[in-house]
Amino acid sequence: MANGSAGNGYAVHAEPKPAPLDASKVTVTLAETLKEVPPPEDLVFGKHMSDHMMVSTYHPVTGWSDPEIKPYGPFMLDPVSSCFQYSTNLFEGMKAYIGVDGKPRLFRPELNMKRMERSLGRVALPSFDTNELLKLIQKLVHVESRWIPNLNGYSLYVRPTLIGTRASLGVAASDHALLYVVCSPTGPYFRTSRMLSLMAVSEHVRSWPGGTGGYKLSGNYAPTFMPQKEAAKKGYDQVLWLIGETITEAGAMNFFVVLQREDGDLDVYTPPTDGTILPGVTRDTVIALMKAHGSKTNLPEIPSTQKIHIYEESITVSQVAQWASEGRLLEAFTVGTAVVVASVGRIGVEGKEDIQLPQHESSMGPVALSLFEKITSIQEGREQYEDWSLVC
């Protein structure tokens, strides 16, 4: 039987497959009037948006539309779109920097793309080749390079977002989607101090075993706002999220503690990626750098002969209190894309005295400070390490 023919003599026409996301088909429409780039002192996280955005839509029959880079602006969506009714939304957080060579670059973007694949699978949104998305992000960052502040500690925050746009109240996965990327110039996340106070909270949990805490979904964030407001009323900067007594995250950041060993080395503990915490890109980065200390690289504030032993294990707030009382707790710190690294000064536990962390001249402990200096040096192109920088 010939290809394209059925046994009865009639030709069979295969249905066209939905088109994949294809970065080579991108069209670029530049804004006629460009915005004025705000001065550095006004670059609060997420306040200003750049001139352009990248957009592509998915239809279950035709597939992904040809991507567009076009002037930043609002979308028109149906009121019953899945994104509004059932929170079928996810995003990534990335940063672009100007290197010493004057070229814009992204920091370990392949990890963001892998995490985005996992997240869209968890909420059953239409998939795409994230390598193509990364090409589009590179193109957008190149177009918006004038928005990247050429200052230490400043960057262009890049947010790829995928939302379900199926226009129905039916409780089902969205087979329509909108993929877009926006950019926002930003300075230091915490303006006044890199020493945080945390309030331990177990009444309200951010995530739970078998839940979605290990995915970067928009729906994970809204339930954290009320406990965060309560923590602020009590004089704390962020919430330390607990499941029972077990620590998961701090705010929207990963959490680490540093202990002194009898042999002079350091033990560093952080909660494992067991599904209750987000596998952060910065988390992966600090673990890799600490493991490489004294061999492949050196952390600037730590002697090269002092070994750092990393443990991805569950830790409880009672353990942290005990380590502090024994004088073994040297420092605690949080990490994330927006903040990079921030030290913890105290932890509040309901009905008990605050756990006090050792104070340091620089306001950051030596491990936290070393990691902050090392990571920002790599991000800003002042130092090369592995293949962590992708030039746009």
UniProtKB/TrEMBL annotation:
EC top class named in words: transferase
Pfam families documented for this protein: Aminotran_4
Enzyme Commission number, as recorded: 2.6.1.42
CDD domains: BCAT_beta_family
Full protein name: Branched-chain-amino-acid aminotransferase
The keyword tRNA-binding appears for this protein: no
BP GO terms, sorted: L-leucine biosynthetic process; L-valine biosynthetic process
Organism this protein belongs to: Phlebiopsis gigantea (strain 11061_1 CR5-6) (White-rot fungus)
